[in-house]
Amino acid sequence: MSDSSNPQRLRALASSSGSADSGQPATGFQRTTSALRTVLPHLLRLLPLLDGNVGSAVSNLLNPPQPSPPPAPPVNLAPILIPIQEGLTELQTEHRDLQAQVLEQNALLIRVEGRLERVEEAAGRNTLAQQELLKELKAVGNRVEELKAAGRKVNVFALVALGLLAFSIVLNAILFLVLRRVLP
């Protein structure tokens, strides 16, 4: 039988609900509160019946509540935390080193970028100078072509002059021979 149907327990409940400190009989409120304290665990076991869970309600009534297990002994985390803290310290040191390397690399990249800009400017100046030289070479080439054409004209003139000179020499030689015969 369940504890709620035990009349001796209910009488003991009613007699213990009186005010023990003052020796006065218990008031209605105190008796009601005491009765609710006694009945409340049984009501909590019957509460699943309202959901239609009859099997669990019956098992709750038949099986007394299990005592809670003793608290677990405190765990000593020091052997685990020390290597973790050492690892964290090592990671922080490596992080600082990597951060310093990144800063150095950034500074190096800035210097390289400055050098590249100077090289680009120099290449631009060289390109302009080469373009000017190319224009000058073309102008010199044109003058050379003009001089060649003029040289050809001079060559033709020189050949004509040499031809006339040769003709004049031949003519003079013929005249000399003719005059020599004529003049004794």
Q: Tell me the series of helices and strands, N- to C-terminal.
A: HHHH
Amount of helix: over 70%
Low-confidence stretches: 1-5
Radius of gyration (CA) equals: 64 Å
Class derived from helix and strand content: mainly alpha
- Name the average pLDDT: 81
The main pleated sheet reads as: none
Number of strands: 0
- Beta-strand residue fraction: under 5%
Count every helix, treating DSSP H or I runs of 4 or more residues as helices: 4
Broad shape: rod-shaped
Separation of the first and last Cα atoms: 190 Å
How are the SSEs placed, and which strands pair?
Elements: H1 7-16, H2 28-50, H3 54-62, H4 78-182
Helix pairs in contact: 2-3
Describe this structure in a few short sentences:
The chain is mostly helical and 184 residues long. 80% of the residues lie in helices and 0% in strands. It contains 4 helices and no strands.
